[in-house]
Amino acid sequence: MMIDAELHRQLRECFSPDGSVLRYQQLRLLEMMTWLDAVCRRHGIRYFLGSGTLIGAMRHGAFIPWDDDVDLEFLRDDYQRLLKILPQECEGTDYVLQTHDSDPGYFYTFAKLRDCRTRLQEPHAYDRIFRYQGLFLDLFPLEPMAGALHWLSNRAQGRTYVVMKNPEYNDQQCQRKTSAIYRFNQRFTFPVLRALSCLTDKDVLHYGPGIPYESTRLLRDILPLTEVTFEGRRFMAPHDADAYLRRLYGDWTKLPPIESIHTHVAKFEILS
Q1: Which of 60, 110, 185, 270 has CA atoms 20 to 30 A from the CA of 131?
Q2: What is the mean pLDDT of residues 236-256?
Q3: What DSSP character marks residue 201?
Q4: What pTM, to 2 d.p., does this model score?
């Protein structure tokens, strides 16, 4: 299912040649992935490459040449354990765990591992009220939840994006209002939806409540985990990656039209 090595080389030369800013970003992300993989293995925490990062591993054996982010996924119990141990593991490193607890302006309902040696801005500018703005790994929890309940959770969390897009609010007002929405959902809305989810099929997984991506995963496609090669290193992956990816993307082996390709970063700085 991997593309021809020569085609991959040509795509790399076009989008992320050696020495380019994008290739620099990818190599720093690879450092972060390698570090987090070691932490997870040391603590017996399961994770796996997800979404576009898994496509990169399966189709290219590396980053998709134009990709500038990393998606890692966890079952909820493993995710909760990771959040407990990462702050201590990050001490003395260039990394920081970003959640609402460590960054009051951060309103997403999933965590990021940030690189403090860099700073980036994303095109939507939601990160303008974040304390940490470096390169990041997205850390997504998965849990049993019916699609309709996950849709409701996204409507509740979606109020934060309405606030962030309102030109009448300054950054301080945005932080106060999004924090209030975040706290209400965490204390009331999401626990109710999780309680209702106890009645649903445990094989059907979605991202945790409030994460605005509604694609379905199946537990049977994921466990038991296996390993794949990514940029010459070994990382954990769903045991049936093809089924996982076809459920999300259809024929994931095909390259998208070149004219439709875009990256996620608007501005990037190297601090150290």
Answers
A1: 185
A2: 96
A3: -
A4: 0.96
Q: Is omega for the bond preceding 104 within 30 degrees of 0, making it cis?
A: no
| CATH numbers and ranges of domains, the chain | 5-142+219-270 (3.30.460)
The residue whose two tokens read 């959640």 is 99
Any idea which of 105-109, 117-121, 230-234, 264-268 has the lowest mean pLDDT?
264-268
CB 53 within 8 A of CB 90: no
**Structure confidence by residue, pLDDT tens digits, 166-175:** 999 999 999 9
> How many Å apart are CA 182 and CA 219, to the nearest integer?
28
Say if residues 98 and 112 touch (Cβ distance below 8 Å): yes
Helix, strand, coil percent content, the chain, rounded in steps of 5: 45, 20, 35
Q: Are 99 and 82 in contact (CB under 8 A)?
A: no
